[in-house]
Amino acid sequence: MREMKDSGIEWIGEIPKDWSLKKGRYLFVQRNDRGNDENLQLLSPSQKFGVIPQSLLEDLTTQTTVKLKENTDLSTLKTVHKGDFCISLRSFQGGFEYSEYEGVVSPAYQIFYKKEDLVNTYYKYIFKDSSFISKMNSYTMSLRDGKNISYFDFGNTYLPLPTVCEQQQIADYLDTQCSEIDATAEDIQKEISLLEEYKKSVITEAVTKGLNPDAEMKDSGIKWIGKIPINWQAVNPRWLFAQRKDRAKKGMEQYTASQKYGVISQKDYMNRIGGSIVTVQKDFDILKMVCEGDFVIHMRSFQGGLEYSEHTGSISSAYVMLIPKKNTGECRYFKWLFKSASYINALQSTSNLIRDGQAMRYSNFIQIIIPYPPLDEQQQIADFLDTKCSEIDAIIADKKRQLDILAEYKKSLIYEYVTGKKEVPINE
Prior knowledge:
By secondary structure, the chain is an alpha+beta fold. About 35% of the residues lie in helices and about 20% in strands. β1 (about 5) and β2 form a beta hairpin. The protein is elongated. The relative contact order is 0.12.
C-alpha cells in the first residue's frame, strides 16, 4: 500500500507521498488570441459534449443556439486550439470544458492550455470531478451579482501533480472504466425510454380501444381516436365538464399546476424546484378557486395534458378549472385520457398561436371530441391502468436508481484515482 500524506487542500484530501501540488497558473497559461485567417468555425462550450462546433451542438441537442449577427467578424472572437480548456458561463455547475476542435468562441469565455509536459486527459478528469467543481463553486458566492469563475480564481487553485507517466496511467485507466460505466448507463437509459414508450402505448390503447381485444369496433369519425368499441360514444367534452369561475376565498392555500407534480401547493412546488415562494398578499380576489376533483388546464397543457386536483384552494387566474358533471362518470378514466399522448397531440393542434403567448382555454378544450365508454368500462379501464402503470413506474424507478448508483460510482472512481487515493492496478 502506497504511503500517503495530507495535501493541506480540503477538496483534494490525502495524496501519495511522492506527488506534489501546484497552483493552476503554474501549470496552465491563459490564451487571449483572437481569430485568425484560417477557416474558422464557431464553437460552443457544453457540459455534456465539451467544446464542439455550434452546428454539431444543435444536431446533438436539437436546441437552437445563440447566433452571431450577420457579417460578424470572427477575427474578433477568441481562438480555441485542440487541447485547450474553456471556462464557460456555467463552469460552477459542470466544471471546465475540453476542446478537440480548432475554432473560435465568444470573448465571454476564458481559454487556457497546458504550460508544461502534462497529460490533458488527466486534468480533463480533474476539471470534471465533483469535488473540484464544488471548489470552483465556492468562488461564485456573488453569482447573483453576475460573477463567473475567472482564470485568476482557477490560477490560485492548487491541483495535484503526479509524474507524467502516472498521469497517463490514470487517464488511460479512467478512459476504460468510465467508457464501460457510460455504456451500461446508456443501455439502462434505452430501457427506460422503451418502458416510457410502452406505458404511453398502453394508456392510449386502453382509453381509446378498451380492454377487450375481441370487441366489435366502429369508426368514431374522429381522426385522433380512430375506431372505438361499438357501444362507446364520441362526445363533445362540454357535455361532461363545466368551467369553474369561482373566485378564491381569503385564507385559502395557494396551489400550482405542473406537468411533473400535478396540482400541488405552491410552497411544496417551490421546495421541490428549489425556488422562492411567491404568494399573493393583496388583491386576493384575482385568484381562482380550485376544488378537489377538478381538472386544471394550465399554460403548458398543450405539452403535457390536463392536471387532476386532489385539493381545494386558490390558484392562478391564468388556469382554467373544469368541473365534472353528474353524468361524467369515473374521473380516474379521464385522468388517464387527458394524459394520453394521442389526446395531448390533439390538444396541441388547437394551440397554433401558443408561441405568440396564447394560453390554453376552455375554448381549446371543447374543440377536442373525446371517447366516452359506459361507466363500468370506464372503471375497468381506470383499475387496469392504475395497476399496470404502477408496475411500469416501479420498474422505471428501479432503473433510475441504477443510473444514480452508476453516476455516484463514476464520481467516486474519478475522485479516488485523480487524487491518488487508489492506484491504477498493474495488470490494467
